[in-house]
Structure formats: structure tokens, C-alpha cells
């Protein structure tokens, strides 16, 4: 059985692990490899290598650092197919979607190729008599990222693409469920010219996460995962004096106005609710048609579209989506479906008991549709993270606006309409961090920033774009005066002003 190890100081050879977790092939349900779970001692080795490499990396001029990012971009493009197949084999998303996962991370690396421009500071000449003020953004030192299973390429690159380009050393703790692509990314960064110790990968579970949160040499932690863990990471990291951003779960709503193009809505919803088996934090698992007439018409079109979805192995080029990540996650989704029935929602399409011929032990869940879901139901309040679409009927615009606004999660939301005024009003008033107008998955492009509100994000800076640069740097502001040689000699006991 293949065993996967950390990537510390440029090599995969580490101290032998005493605890392991299984890496499954979700298509077959079989264990395909095992992962050695690290300890505080493994982290210590990574921190030592990072501390050795980081000062010289920070002192390397930004254009040279950007060239490494550029080489890395080219290597990812060259290895795209291999990376996508590897990602798909552990996660279960179809290969085309795995390429999208890599591509969206690569776009942050492309942003990082322009880091010399981005790092230029502010300057004021003559802020006072003979006084100039300027600022510089300096790296934090050693920083860390803890990432979820559902985007094993994109989310690490959101973080380290920016963190490394601005001069930090980065220690990645990826999900235990699909750890191979993160290791490959670290190998490719070395090949691109990053010094050993600048991008390292340590594997593990809570024990490793706690070691990261408590380590005094790690200045900042970026986390993406479920909300309870995000909150925990935020609290423990901040208590240890670190800068922490912690993104959590989601329950994104799609509002359908009576004037929307329903055929387009059905096409958009099919992809956004069921793509990647619903295992996206920007999936659209709740649809809110306004008015019963809209609900009835939408439901009539949705049922055949959902029944026509093709669930297949992740290497099937015609499959719309593949298996979910583990047997435990499949059981959790199916429990939520039963809970929905018990709570009194109408189960219109039931995806339980789905078996793919020849892959009966794979972790497949068929597409599921509920109608007449109400806000008091647990299945509405909680994140299911599977191929389950819930319809909540709203009588009017104001009610529809209140649903996502009052939900505990506030990651993304979409409105489908032809009415520009309503869309504008919705975008301005909704209490959610990312809004799509006739765009079902409004993940902002790399040079903007990504982040939700409420229990979808703890901390105040978003991922990537200028917010990422801010998170991974600290600002130093210099106020300078170069005396002309004359002696001024006076002491001042009053706070200096420029007035
Ligand atoms: P998860 O919370 O189980 O795991 C995330 C990370 O935390 C992993 O690296 C894991 O090893 C670690 N971890 C797990 N249990 C821990 C514990 N008890 N203590 C400390 N660390 C622990 O999340 P997941 O199942 O891998 O990913 C799915 C979740 O991530 C969903 O809730 C999804 O919405 C969310 N997500 C959010 C965003 C976003 O940007 N808001 C993006 C992607 C995924």
C-alpha cells in the first residue's frame, strides 16, 4: 500500500508516522493509499526549515519572486492533466471539474506574478516642512494554511500564491482526504525555483492543527473548512496572538423572480446544485421561487432536468458529477434526506440507494429534490454539502430577501431576474458576502477577493486579491526628515502636528 508523507525541507522523507488515515478511491469505495498523520515534532522540522529559508526569500527582489511564480504557473499548465486525474481520483469530482479546481487556483498564481506592482507602497512628499512619509508592506515571516477536502488545489493556491509572492514561508496542512495534489504542488514549486522551506506540506488531523495554532513562530493562519472548526481555529489562533482568517460553511440561496428566464434558471441550478456532487461552498442548494405560479412552473421544468442528470465515475467524460468523498459523508447526506422527510418536506426526487453498475461500493448519491421546505426545518438551517436541492417557496420579494439575510450562513447568494431595479435593490440589501445577478456561482475572480459573512467567515480579511496581500503582509510607515545642516535644537513636549 502506498503511503504518503509530508513535504518538509524539499523532501518527502520524514520521521515514520505512528498514526495513519485512509485515502479512498470514492469511485470504488476501496482504500488506495494511506497518509501518515504528523505530530508537533514534524511541524517543528518544517518551522526550522521555513525559518532558515524565509529571510533570504523576503530579501529577494519582488521581480525575482514573481519569476518563480511565473515558472510555477507554467509547470501547472504543463502538468494539468496529471494533476486533474490525481485530484479526481481522491476527491471524486469529474476530471473536467478537477481542471476547473486547479485553474481557479492558478489564476491567483497569475495575480501573484504581478506582485512587484502590487507591493508598491504609499508616498507623500512634503507631508510637513522637510518631511516625507512612505509606507512599505513587509512579509509576516512564517505563515500557515489549513484547507478543506473540496478544493484541494484551488484553496491552497488562494493562500500560498499570495503569501509566498509577498515574501513569506508557507506551511500547508491540507485535508487528510485528498492530500496528494498538495504534495505535487509543493514539488512543482521547488522545480519552479522556490528555495526549500518556502512551501512545505505537513499532514495530519486535529493534533497537527493544534500544533500550528499554538506554535509561536507561525504569525498567521488562513483556514477554510466547516464553521464549527473555523470558529475554533479562529479563537485558538487569535488567543495565541496570531492573525487569523477562517472561512466556514455555507447555505447559498438562489432567488427566482417571476420574470426570470426559467429554462436558463433550470440549467444554472442543475450545475450549481449538483456539480461536484454539491460539495462546494458556493453550491446553490436552496432555490426560492417567488409566488406559487413561479414555484409550480419551475418545479415542472426541474424534475425532468434532475432526472436526466448523469451520475458516473469521475473519469467518465459524460458524467455530470461523480461520487461524494467518503462513505461517512454519503451516510451523512442520506441521513439528511431522511430527516427532510421526517420534518415534513416533500421529497420530489429521491437520490438515496443509488448504485452505479460495476461500482456498487462507490460513494454515489443520486440527485435529490425537496419542495415545500420551511425555515424551521433543521435540513434548511444546516449545510448538507451533497447533491440535494431544497425549494423554499416565498410569497414576495421582501420574504425572499429575508431568507438568505437571516440565515446563519452568508457565503453566496444569487438572484435570477430580468428586472434591473429589483436586482440592484437585492444586491444592496442582502446580508450575504458574495452576490450573483443571473450568475449562479458568484466566485469572484482572482484579483477581486473571496469571502462570506456571518458564520461563513471569522476574521475580517478575505482570500486573495488585495485582501490576501493585506492579510499576509504588515505595513510599516516611515516618517523622514533630512536636516539641512542647520541646528534647530528645540525640544517639543507637544504631540507633533503638521499644522
Ligand atoms: P473540515 O472542517 O472537516 O476540515 C477542514 C480542515 O480542518 C481540514 O484540514 C481538517 O484536517 C481540519 N480539521 C478537521 N477536524 C478538525 C478538528 N476537530 N480540529 C482542528 N482541525 C480539524 O471541512 P471539510 O469537510 O474538509 O470541507 C468542507 C467544509 O468546508 C464545508 O463546510 C464547506 O462549506 C467549507 N468550505 C468553505 C469555503 C469557504 O470559502 N467559505 C470553501 C470551501 C469549503
From TrEMBL:
Start and end residues of each Aldehyde dehydrogenase domain: 21-478
Instruction: Report whether Oxidoreductase shows up as a keyword of the record.
Output: yes
What Gene3D superfamilies does the database record attribute to this sequence? Aldehyde Dehydrogenase, Chain A, domain 1 (3.40.605.10), Aldehyde Dehydrogenase, Chain A, domain 2 (3.40.309.10)
Specify one Pfam family.
Aldedh
Would the keyword Cell cycle turn up in this protein's UniProt record? no
The superkingdom of the source organism is Bacteria
* Entry EC number(s): 1.2.1.-
What InterPro entries has UniProt attached to this entry?
Ald_DH/histidinol_DH (IPR016161), Ald_DH_C (IPR016163), Ald_DH_N (IPR016162), Aldehyde_DH_dom (IPR015590), MeMal-semiAld_DH (IPR010061)
- Residues in the signal sequence: none
Tell me one GO molecular function of this protein. Answer: oxidoreductase activity
For this UniProt record, the keywords arranged alphabetically read as follows: Oxidoreductase
* Name of the protein this chain belongs to: CoA-acylating methylmalonate-semialdehyde dehydrogenase
Q: What is the lineage of its organism?
A: Bacteria, Pseudomonadati, Pseudomonadota, Alphaproteobacteria, Sphingomonadales
